[in-house]
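From the thread on structure requests for the teaching lab: each student submitted one protein with a one-line request. Submission from student K.M.:

"Model Adenosylcobinamide kinase from Gloeomargarita lithophora Alchichica-D10, tokens only."
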Amino acid sequence: MPPTNPHLTLITGPSRSGKSRWAEYLAANLGVSITYVATGIPDPADQEWQARITQHQQRRPAHWHTLEPPLDLVALCQQPPPNSGLLIDSLGTWVAQFLALDNPAWLNMQNQLLNALKITANPVILVAEEVGWGVVPAYPSGRLFRDRLGELMQEIGALAGCVYLVTGGWALNLTQLGQPVPRAAFPDSAPPA
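Reply posted by the TA:
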């Protein structure tokens, strides 16, 4: 099991569960300046999406610095603003932007992000959507999105000093209540022939 980074927090949960509000609450209580990293790309043709973005914007304190797409999330995590915490909302909208990448290119980008998160000394709070609790998506891009996001969340969860599950307006600290899933089901035995 890789060592955890005490500066890294992962918050996950279903849609409309309160996970962004919980992330904002934690960030506001870090005692450092906050850089809010919005990964959702505005789409003026989609009024419902724009309303969601506006709701998030109105909830943020005016003194938080906000970064919006296009942005290089890997570079930002490698060199965050000095004396600042990052609140990244959300991993799902970031992953969705790269579904066209082939698997080797995606894995390279994922590994770069994970390597940056392993060593960051700045507080980083990541918000991610739980997408695997429903039916298997009927289309390939939906399955690819679900699989990539789920695998990335497992990797980040293994690194994070704290992991929260937010559902129904309640935040559960999984690092206190749960046990990490082993990286291999049978670590001391050879794989079956």
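TA comment: The longest helix spans residues 140-159. Strands lie at 5-13, 33-38, 65-67, 84-89, 124-129, 160-167, 170-173.
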